[in-house]
Amino acid sequence: MLDITTPLNTTNNKLVKAYTINFGPQHPSAHGVLRLLLEMYGETVINADPHIGLLHRGTEKLMEYKNYMQGLPYLDRLDYVSMMAQEHCFSTAIERLSGTIVPVRSRYIRVLMLEITRILNHLMSITTHAMDVGALTPFLWAFEEREKLMEIYERVSGARMHANYIRPGGVSQDIPLGTLESLYQFIAQFSSRIDETEDLLSGNRIWQTRLIGIGSINSQKGFLWGFSGAMSRGSGSLWDLRKVNPYEIYSQIPFIIPQGSSGDCFDRYLVRMEELRSSISIISYCLNKIPSGEIKAINIKLHPSKNLMKQSMESTIQHFKSMSSGLLLPINEVYSATEAPKGEFGIYISSIGKLHPSRVKLRAPGFFHLQGAKTMVYQHLLADVVTIIGTMDIVFGEVDR
Questions:
Q1: How far is CA 87 from CA 175, 310, 400, in A?
Q2: Contact by Cβ (8 Å): 391, 229
Q3: SS3 at position 225
Q4: Global pTM?
Q5: Within a 13 Å sphere around the CA of 112, how many CA atoms are in the beta-carbon half?
Q6: What residues form DSSP beta bridges with 40?
């Protein structure tokens, strides 16, 4: 701790005392409605107190008063940069509660969409972080690439952001003709775009000075704070739920988990850049292996098939009841977690045999990362706070919920 009574001028015998300033919530580098109370000693931060909740919408309570299918669109509004990743976690929780088996083709489509979402998230994270530090060009390059992927989002779901595409039992509809070819063309040229961004940033003297040694946190402290994703892997951890607890078809796909060493802002930047390349390899694998077949589970409660509906009036009645009143799931509870672009996103659902859940609790990775802000910014300069907040990759839709 710095001595806040150190004389500023021994001749006049003046004392320097700590003072408090507000960082946000209107600050353009706050990445949302974050209010950070900073206790300063000159330009040096000696304490930071994050104030959250300005965006709070009561998502968990709203979902408890809706039936299971009505609760799905709320997930798109949480991390509104990684929409389908949130949908996927909720859908897997419902599938586990209902005992639904997802068709193989649907699993491949889900992985394609999840990795597209990861690329969308990291392009936003890396380049807005770079813009906070002072580099505008990567931001313009990245948004040109994001636009191509947003078009694929729109082609498969009809929406650019709130897709409501990944649903319990599969996906809402099959991939339109020509979309896989467009995705192949995208990954064929995207590697060179990553190289261009790295050429501009990784060796840049200003970028290195602003990031290296800033906001360092070791893997042990990160574990205690509940860090996950790039925040954890940048400190040397190899924790990735796609490898540790594989879901969908990730156990079949060979891909590399990037790993940092010092846990500073520069390591976290490098990890996210390498994850972009890993996502390209995963998408390439899926494009080469994707089979034909059903895209919705043959489960009368979730997605009754057309053949069953034609053959059985009881099936039609059951479908009408399920779609109008909602699903009646057995009394049980489940926690489902997936490796979202920002880290481990989880959802706990408790079912008591009613048409709506009795308890919903979300685990947002950004909430845990923000907890470590006080430790990470301690004894750094005010300008470094912008760098550290940027490298956390925070979106307040999921933090405040």
A1: 17, 30, 18
A2: no
A3: helix
A4: 0.85
A5: 30
A6: 19, 45
> How is the chain split among helix, strand and coil, in percent rounded to 5?
50, 15, 35
Residues 156, 179 contacting (CB under 8 angstroms) = yes
Residue 15 pairs in a beta bridge with: 7
Residue 361 three-state SS: strand
Residue 20 lies in a domain: no
CATH code for the domain of 225: 1.10.645.10
Other Cβ atoms within 10 Å of 279 Cβ, number:
23
Backbone angles phi, psi at 90, to 5 degrees: -65, -40
Q: Which amino acid type is present at position 360?
A: V
According to DSSP, residue 290 is labeled P
Structural domain boundaries, residue 242: 59-400
Crossing angle of helices 137-157 and 104-133, in 10° steps, is 160
Angle at 263 between CA 260 and CA 269, to 5 degrees: 65
Q: Has residue 175 been placed in a domain?
A: yes
The CA–CA distances, whole Å, from 242 to 107, 221, 367, 377 equal: 14, 23, 21, 30
Q: How many domains does the chain have?
A: 1
Q: Read off the pLDDT of residues 311-351 as tens digits, 9 standing for 90 and up.
A: 567 767 776 776 677 777 777 888 999 999 998 999 998 88
Find out whether the peptide bond into 7 is cis, omega within 30 degrees of 0: no
Size of the chain in residues: 401
pLDDT in tens, 173-215: 889 888 899 999 999 998 888 998 888 888 889 988 989 888 8
CB atoms within 10 A of CB 118: 24
25: Cβ contacts below 8 Å, ≥ 6 apart: 32, 33, 34, 35, 54
Domain assignment of residue 65, yes or no:
yes
Q: What are the DSSP E strand ranges found in 152-288?
A: 166-167, 170-171
How far, in Å, CA of 362 to CA of 57, rounded?
Answer: 13
Dihedral sign for Cα atoms in the order 221, 223, 227, 231: positive
How is residue 33 written in tokens? Answer: 């409605």
Measured between its terminal Cα atoms, the distance across the chain in Å is: 35
